[in-house]
Write a structure and sequence with these properties.
Helix content: 40-55%
Structural class: alpha+beta
CATH topology of the largest domain: Beta-Lactamase
Number of strands: 14
CATH architecture of the largest domain: 2-Layer Sandwich
Shape: rod-shaped
Number of domains: 3
Largest sheet: 5 strands, antiparallel
Strand order of the largest sheet: 4-3-7-6-5
Order of helices and strands: HEEHEEEEEHHHHEHEEHEEHEE
Radius of gyration: 51 Å
Oligomer: single chain
Length: 458
Amino acid sequence: MNAQLPSIRRRLVVQLALVAALLSVAFFLTVRGVAGNATEQTQDSILAASAASIADAVYSDDGAVRVEIPYSALSMLGTVSEDRVFYRVIVDGETLTGYDDLPVPSGRAGPRAPLFDTYTYRGDSLRSVVIGRALSGASQPRRVEVVVAQTRLGLEVISARITGTATAIGVAFFLVATALSALAAQNALKPLNRLAETMARRGPKDLRPVTDETPEELVPLVAGLNSFMQRLGAALTRSEDLIVEAAHRVRTPLATVRTQAEVMHLQVEKPANRAALRQMIRAVDESSRSAGQLLDHAMVTLRSDQLETEETDPADLLRDVVARLAPTAELKDITIRLELPPRRIRVMGDPILLQNAVRNILDNAIKYSAAETDITVRLEPGNPCRLIFCDQGRGFAAADITRLPDRFSRGSNVSDVVGSGLGLTIVADVARAHGGSLRIADNPKGAGACVTLVLPSC
């Protein structure tokens, strides 16, 4: 048995969901990176503006360098967050004011070329800027550097908020994209589902080509399906023709041989020759019956897969079969009694198969019944519907009942009677094809057997 592959719809949804997940992760990483750079650049701009404001406030007074820190220089940093701010003003390498130990970013900074750095100071992570300028007005130019630093707590809070928002958006995008992926996969598979529904609604004999419009991806599948149905239809037609032709060509020569043997049997006088001819006639009968039932079994097997059901009156079917086999029963003085309901009933089934099954049951009953006995054929309508055949023949051995529906199985007490062991097999196959069953039992009213063909309802 071939392993079942995963659902196409599930595979599409999973693949589209993976794409959505990758896009969500890419969106999250991009937003986090852009947001981090943007917040850092914002802080750097404010730090540079603050440092430039302080640098502009440095002046020379009678050779002494002085500075008046503008309130706005530090207050602008306070508007960003509640971070701590540090500053340091350095003149010619000496701290004029501020924190003496505040590190200075390495490099030579200018008024328009600030230098930025990130480091840890007094246990806090700081973002720092240094701006340099030359102070004139003294006896000689003085080098002034202003360092302004700010803790990064506010930056981290803003980054966390942006990251949280990006995460929420990414998760929402993933969920929406997954739901849309499921809808898209379902919509994409609608043509395939419609094709499957069209084929499922067809009857067993409907081998017409598929003419529905289909997407180009399904064209090879539909073309292959149409080609297969065309070949299957041709093969079934050839099989049916072969069965009919074989039945004719097998039965006709055997019937001719039997007729000639019977004529010779009447003409010869020697007991030995007459005995040989009787054996020949018996062998021909066995061959004819076996060939006929083999062909019947092939026909039943073929039609069971393609039932041509229609409303059938089981009472009419029983009357027809009884009328056909009555001459054979009369040769043994057997009376066939029909017990039919007064009202007209219907059963859905293949009339050819049902007739074949009834004929095999009744033929067996006649063949295995003693002379001058009765066979009762009773129709019991209802749910289920029962066609019951009871004879007064040999009955069944208890050990044989379960295996009699098997092919070529015969009862242990009928070896002296011509038979192929296919009659009840055919009946069982017909019953199964119609959703019914075959029941075999001894006749509850005495000697003989009862065979019941059970159909779903009538």
